[in-house]
Structure formats: C-alpha cells, structure tokens
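Kindly inspect what follows.
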Amino acid sequence: MKQAQAVILDLDGLMIDSEPVHQRAFEELLARHGIDHEFTVEEYGRHFVGIPVKENAEWLVTHFGLRGAPEELLAEREAIYESLLEDSSNLVPMPGVFALLDALRARGLPLGVASGSPRGQVDTILRGLKITDRFRAVVAGDDVPHTKPAPDVYLRAVEQLGVAPARCVAIEDSATGITAAKAAGLYAIAVPNRYTAHQDLRADVQAESLDQVLPLLVG
C-alpha cells in the first residue's frame, strides 16, 4: 500500500509471542481445578486464539465440566496470566518486530496499537518490551464498548492518530483482528503465527513473518 499514512499493530501473537503464556495460564487454571490437560497447538489455536477470554472461560466450563461461574474462572485465569507477564522471561518478542518498528519510525509513519487485551496487560507488555514510546496511540480492549471482532479499537486508534481509516494499515495475526480492522475500513496485512495459520484470515495481503511486511507498505 503506497499511500499509507499510519500503521496500527495488534499486540498478542503479532509483536509478542504471548499465546504460549496464555496457554500456560489456562492449563494452570485447569490444574488448580484438578484437571491435568495440555493443549495441542491446533486445539489451543482453534478454541482460544483471537476469541475473547470470557468466551474462553465459558468453553472451559462446558468442555471440562468445571464448577464455578465463568466470570469467577476468568478472574482466576487473568490473575494467573498477569503474574506470568510480570516475569520478563515470559515476554518473548516475535522475530522481526524491533526491525520493523525501527523501519517504520525511520519513514516517519505514526504508529498505533489496537489490542483486544485489557489495558493493564497491554501496558505491562509494552513496558516489558521497552517499546511504549514507539506508539502515538494505544487502545486496549477495555477502552472501548466492544472489543474485536467489532471495529471499535481500530476506530479509536485512527481517531487518536488523526488519520483516515482508508489511509491506515493494520497488521494482525488472527481472523478476529482482521475482521475488526476491515470493518473499520483499514487495509489489513495478515502475519499468522503457528496458532493462527489454520484460520481463514481474509486480509488484503498476507506475509509469512514481520520481516516481509515493510515491502508490502512501501513497494
């Protein structure tokens, strides 16, 4: 896209390899309730990735017969996950993310983050990766009335950047994120990871890694 005036990136699964941490949190939650289960990549990707965690909790109740309200299980899982995020060894950047951010900044493109995750988790990850100051706009899932696949996070981000949606590029790893970006009117680049490779992403264009994104923006 030759006329891009801004770039908005997803966070989980795109800039940081957070899905293994999410998976650990769900597995630890199950263990606390007496269930020893390790998800396969395919199973976890199909039932959890790109899906709101509230729905994840509801699926766990139904699939494993957990006792307790989904809301209570969700709060317990979130506490487990956030404790894992506090350990910097769990914050693994995706290959190519720093080089891409450097290249975009060198070209003077304002950057934003549009995440479906809660604000506290987003801020913890950005601080842990030391990239908070790279972004002019940061919108989290609880900053808007409806999270992905609704377009709200992207609409809020383009508003903060002061750029028309049609002149902004979204970079996403999941079908849910792509749906949100396209619904907001953005050009969407998909960079799937091992958990989302099976999804029907329906982006405008797809790259195998973040290293391949820049030519799609300036080529």
Remarks:
- DSSP finds nine helices and six strands in the chain.
- The beta strands are 6-9, 111-114, 137-139, 168-172, 187-190, 205-206.
